[in-house]
Amino acid sequence: MPRHATQKAKTTGQVPVHVAIIPDGNRRWARERGLPTWKGHEKAANENNLRQFVQAAKKLGIKHLSVWGFSTENWRRSPAELKKLFQIFLKLAKDAQEEFVKEKIRFRHIGRKDRLPRKLMRELEKLEQLTSNYNDTQLNLFLDYGGKHDILQAVNKALSLGKKRVSEREFEKLLLTNGIPEPDLIIRTGKEKRLSGFLLYQAAYTELYFTNKHFPDFSPQDLRRAVQNFMKRKRNFGK
Predict the structure, then answer these.
(1) Domain segments of the chain: what residues?
(2) Which of the residues are catalytic?
(3) Per-residue confidence at 5, pLDDT binned at 50, 70, 90?
(4) 14-231 belongs to CATH 3.40.1180.10
């Protein structure tokens, strides 16, 4: 979606339309407690946590809540950790179906479709289909997603269509995030202060919020504080 799609969140005091979260610190949280690293992922992806965040987003008036669950670079992790991660995402996708239908939450998986385990992809697709008609609140789960890959696949798609030039609007339709407004606010937990390749094209005018809390300790109250901080900011969009 073009940048003007989120202009209504421009002035001070307005709730962000789209909030995206980089949930960093799961492994550090586990290590600090002497636990296997996957325990941090398990706690972060707990069904109750997801439900609470979605409910908090609805109450705040956030229309799109995005979570970066697995990057294109995360494939470098050990086979044992990858296996556990995919098991966690599979359970999350299954458990969310009844809740999302009941609460009319739309779900979208954003990322590559060709490398994730087939069982996981089937459940993600099923959840997308079950919730495809809802348009009030949307959860976007970014799995096997990287900003560089997103831009490159859009360029290659344009070339395959015989395009020699594309407008900004046309290019945005080729991105994996087509149909999702650009993020007004990106929250990163876990002390690091960088985007790590997340939504590189889409985040040109996004407000950034960093917290030292590891994601397993990040609560809906923390989400509310981040939104309140955003609402105090003035957005000029280069003017």
Answers:
(1) 14-231
(2) 24, 74
(3) very low
(4) yes
